[in-house]
Structures are given as C-alpha cells and as structure tokens.
Amino acid sequence: MITVLLFFFIYAFLGWCCEVCFAALKEGKFINRGFLNGPLCPIYGFGVLAVVFLLQPFKENFFVLFLGSVLITSIIELVAGFVLEKMFHQKWWDYADKPFNIGGYVCPLFSLMWGVACLVVVDRIHPLIAKVVDFIPEIIAIILLAVIIILFASDLIATVKIILKLNKKLERIDELSAIIKKTSNEIGENLATKTIDLVNKKDAIEDKIDIKKKIFEEDMAIQKETKKAASEHWEQALPDLRQAYRELLEASPFGQKRLLRAFPTLKSTQHKEALDKIKEDKIEKTESVDSKEA
C-alpha cells in the first residue's frame, strides 16, 4: 500500500508537470493546471497506476499495451469528467470541437496521445521510479506519505469550498441579471401601456376635436408623469443593481482565478451565461492591462 500510494502521488505530480509544460508552450506563461491548487493532478495518478498494474502482463506486447492504455485512460477520463460535472455542475474540459468525441469528455486524438505516453511510462519511466521508491526506507516513506496526504486532503477541501463559492456566485449573478431585466421590462411595459391607451382614446374620440384635445392633453400629462416616475425608479433601482452586479463580476478570489486559468474551456451546466460574463470581464481586464503596458 505504501508503494502504491507513492506511485500515485509521484505520477500525479509528473502529470501536473506535463500539464504546466503544455500550457507554457501553448500560452507562453506559467499556468497552474489541474483541479487542485497544489502541484498534483490526481487523474494522472489513477491513470498510470491502472495501466501499470492491469497491463503489466502485456509489457512486452506493445500493440496490446498501446490498445489497453488507450482504453483504460479513456474510461478514466470519461468517468472523471462525468462525475466532476455531476458533483460540481461544471464541465472542466470539453472536446466537443474535436471529431468523434464522446460527450466532450474524451476524443480519439487525446486518447491516442495517452496511449503513446503510457508506452513510454511502462517501458522506460516506471522501472526507474520503481527503483527510486525501493530505495526509500519504510519509516521515511510513511512520514512522507503522511505529510503529503494531509496537504492533499487540505487542498481538496479548500478546492471544493472554492468551487461551491463559485457556483453560489454564478447563481447570484444570474439572479441579479434577472432582476435588472425584469425592472427594465416593467418600465418599458408601463410606458408602452400608457402609449397604447393614449392611441386608443385618440381613435375613439376622433370626431370630437375639443374633447379629443382635452383628453389628449390629460393623457400627455399622465404619460409625462409616468415617464418621470419610471425615470426616478430607474435612477434609484438600476444603478444599485448594476453596481452589485459589477462587484460580483469583479470579485474573483485567488482560487477562482486559478481555476478559470487552469480550465479555460470550463462550462457551467446551470449558470452558463453568468460564467461567460465572468470570462468576458476577465478578458476585458487583460486587454486593458495589455493596452496600458503597450
């Protein structure tokens, strides 16, 4: 069990390193990839352990090893993506734009890449790591694992809290957006109703010029008063709502910022528009900073 746990955390760390290198090549800067805040990607730990232990008998048969690796890693990625989405209502990665993808969770291109990577791991990397692990004294391994597990558990709890807060924030953004829209609609509907009433009254008394003029003037006064009331309502209610909306968009604790950077294709299954607004606001801020620096 000690050996298995050491393998899990080693490959979780190496997987995180690969993700960071890939992001650096793609974006030209450091991005802390992965679900957790710390330098661990657990899905890599599970994936490599499954491949190493399940396919060890086929180590010498590269074709079977490759196909088995593709199948195992695809199943793990599919299950992990599905479970995370159902638990947190977020789609952390999305291959929907890739051909022959399955629910956006897996796609042939990346599955084949995992298969090739696992060939290298099983044939070259794992034997070296196994030797290093064998050299670690048992007592040191136990102490090391105890520290890592405590940090891992703390990081996991903190990350879950951050995600729950993000979901709550998205919910509040949607609620405020709905209130602002409703307020605007009520103002518009009120004005429209008065205008329609005015037209109807004008048509009904078309043959009575004097009465028509009088009613028209009265209705114009009512309309003016309605517009004034609507304007005052607008001035009092909407600025406060929009200020609260803007503060929600701009409020982005460290953990939430990191998640959005780590998962640029992150999608919310319940609050898609709110998450898109946060991303748009983030892009606008980045462009503004870049233009000032230029």
UniProtKB/TrEMBL annotation:
Record's keyword annotation contains Protein biosynthesis: no
Annotated region (Disordered), positions in chain: 270-294
Transmembrane segments: 6-25, 37-56, 62-84, 105-127, 139-164
Matching InterPro entries: CmpB_TMEM229
Keyword hit for Membrane: yes
Keywords tagged on the record: Membrane, Transmembrane, Transmembrane helix
A Pfam family per the record: ABC_trans_CmpB
Protein name: ABC transporter permease
